[in-house]
Amino acid sequence: MTIIIKRMYNKAIWKYFWDINVFNIPFSLIIGLISGLLWSIIIFSSLGIVIGYLGYKTFKNNQYYVYYNLGLTKTSLLKKVWLLNMIISFLLFLIYIIIR
Amino acid sequence: MDVLEITNLNKSYGKKILLKNINLQCKVGEIIGAFGRNGTGKSTLLKLIFGTVKADSIHIKINSKTIFPNDIISSKKIAYLPQDTFLPKEQKVREIIPLFFPNGEDQDKIFYSPQVSSFEKTKVGKLSLGQLRYLELLIIGNLSHTFLMLDEPFSMIEPIYKDVIKDLLLKLKKSKGIILTDHYYNDVFEITNKNFIIRDAKKIEIVDKADLIKYEYLKSNQ
Q1: Best interface-test mutation with A: which of B86, B87, B93 has the largest number of A CBs within 10 A?
Q2: What CATH number has the domain spanning B3-214?
Q3: Hey, which of B34, B57, B81, B213 would disulfide with B150, CB 3.0 to 4.6 Å?
Q4: What is the ipTM of this complex?
Q5: CA torsion angle for B123, B129, B130, B134 (degrees, to 10)?
Q6: What residues in chain A have their Cβ under 8 A from chain B's Cβ atoms?
Q7: In the structure, what pLDDT confidence band is assigned to residue B113 with cuts at 50, 70 and 90?
Q8: Cβ-nearest to B73 among A10, A62, A73
Q9: What pLDDT score does B222 carry?
Q10: Where are the domains of chain B?
């Protein structure tokens, strides 16, 4: 885990993570309002990432060249975002269980 | 000396053959200019080498070692300057530089480059075209990659920045091999060692402006 976090400690990757989740978070929250908080948490680490990817592709597609020139492919970036979102979702799920 | 070799490059879109059996070699210390009318495949050629467009066939070797197209980006041997700006417009120049260079010494190389102090606090979206292209080239050129693919580095640039960019490219070629394409042929001829034109999907070596006329890239009175 330490190795993963160290490797991810990179401003460029955090920027991509944030840019994807700018689209993902509102989508997940809307789903949460309709179907409940638990669904919101599930969507955040699954379909929401797809929505984030499509939003990024639509509005910021050329910025992928930032990452390509840093040696990062789309697949490797999305894997990192997915892993981080899974960790966040798991923590949110634990908080949900405790509060409930 | 590092050598990039491209052989058997072919690319078609449907029935249209864009590039046919292109072979190309670029050594560190060389700047190679690629010419061709719009739609002849210059930009596609660079993207094929960079691996962001899939070729029908391509064989890439660096120092005689084959690199598969899917591994080019992760190998960090070839960098690519796209035609359109790729830097996040909402961020300031001083915030962009650490995205590419986590190390302070590497950041200083950019911050202390000529002209940069005059626009480092400006947002990327507010830079002039010349400042933006220069910044992009500084960033791409200071990465560790040995070979640079530059798509229209002189396009729409104000004259003062053209000279700055030419100086930068001549400095970079000491440690890198560069392939560039641009319609500003006079600027290109000033800095290149070798040139070619793409015509009818084929690569033809050229020497000077007369060849550009001969292969109908320019009219004789231009």
Answers
A1: B86
A2: 3.40.50.300
A3: B81
A4: 0.94
A5: 60
A6: 10-12, 15, 60, 62-66, 68-73, 76
A7: very high
A8: A73
A9: 64
A10: 3-214
